[in-house]
């Protein structure tokens, strides 16, 4: 799923305000070595944090329906994860970097929710929209200064981009066919013989109806006590 989110981001950032500019979009860690090897204007989108959004966790099972709207399988609800990206611009002049960041911001701000038909592969097959947040409040446990220190580079202007993506929970379970007949109880004699055996059928509640013609309702237990006594 993470590589599919990368694919979506590359298409969004490379398009929009940067369409036709030839700006490269990289997902490598922006270390000193990477910066020294860079030879063209680049927007770096570095995935630095992955954690579950527990506020979206659901319990139970979800039905999977076929083209006839019949439940054929059941699966657990997907788990949602926050993918946090550090977006930076790399050129020879700070002003050009600021223009690139402005273009990225203008491209991503209107895309607060990505519909399923714009998502690739298994991500789109879930049929769920994906929230996108850019330049919001930084709520992760590590500060941006600590992230840059871990990368071994100097602090640069950056955008904090968060994509909350669903991950399917496996496995899926086959669903049995709908119940159309009731259960039958067969009673044998004490010695196990079939002589005098009885069979009683019980129909499910959703199939229960009025007695058929010539059919009587019988109490399977003792008659209820009405409180009356014989005179």
Structure, described:
Pfam families: Pvc16_N. Residues 4-181 form the Pvc16 N-terminal domain. InterPro entries: Pvc16_N. Residues 193-231 are annotated as: Disordered. The model is unreliable at 213-221 (pLDDT under 50). The protein has 5 helices and 9 strands, in the order αβαβββαβαβαβββ. It starts with a helix and ends in a 29-residue tail after the last strand. The protein has a single domain, classed as STM4215-like, CATH 3.30.2000. Helices cover 20% and strands 31% of the residues. The radius of gyration is 32 Å and the shape is elongated. The strands form 2 sheets. Strands 1, 2, 3, 4, 5, 6 and 7 form a 7-stranded mixed sheet that branches. The protein has a two-stranded antiparallel sheet with strand order 8-9. The protein is of the alpha+beta class and 231 residues long.
Question: Could you provide a short overview of the structure?
Answer:
Residues 193-231 are annotated as: Disordered. The protein is of the alpha+beta class.
Beta-strand proportion: 25-35%
Secondary-structure content class: alpha+beta
Q: Encode the helix/strand succession as letters.
A: HEHEEEHEHEHEEE
Number of helices: 5
Main sheet summary? 7 strands, mixed
Domain Pvc16 N-terminal: 4-181
Protein name: Pvc16 N-terminal domain-containing protein
Region (Disordered): 193-231
Pfam families: Pvc16_N
């Amino acid at each position: 799923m993470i590589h599919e989110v990368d694919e979506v981001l590359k298409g969004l950032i490379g398009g929009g305000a940067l369409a036709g500019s030839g700006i490269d979009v990289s997902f490598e860690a922006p270390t000193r070595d990477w910066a020294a090897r860079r030879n063209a204007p680049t927007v770096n989108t570095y995935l630095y944090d992955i954690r579950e959004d527990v506020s979206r966790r659901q319990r139970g099972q979800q039905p999977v329906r076929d083209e006839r709207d019949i439940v054929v399988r059941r699966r657990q609800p997907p788990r949602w994860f926050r993918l946090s990206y550090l977006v930076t611009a790399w050129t020879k002049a700070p002003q050009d970097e600021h223009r690139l960041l402005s273009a990225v911001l203008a491209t991503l701000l209107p895309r607060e929710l990505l519909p399923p038909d714009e998502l690739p592969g298994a991500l789109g097959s879930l049929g769920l929209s994906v929230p996108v947040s850019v330049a919001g409040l930084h709520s992760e446990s590590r500060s941006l200064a600590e992230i840059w220190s871990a990368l071994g580079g100097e602090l640069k202007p950056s955008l904090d981009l968060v994509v909350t993506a669903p991950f399917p929970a496996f496995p899926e379970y086959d669903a049995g066919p709908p119940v159309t007949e009731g259960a039958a109880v067969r009673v044998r004699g004490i010695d196990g013989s079939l002589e005098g055996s009885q069979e009683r059928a019980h129909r499910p509640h959703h199939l229960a109806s009025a007695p058929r013609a010539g059919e009587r309702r019988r109490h399977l237990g003792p008659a209820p006590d009405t409180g009356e006594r014989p005179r």
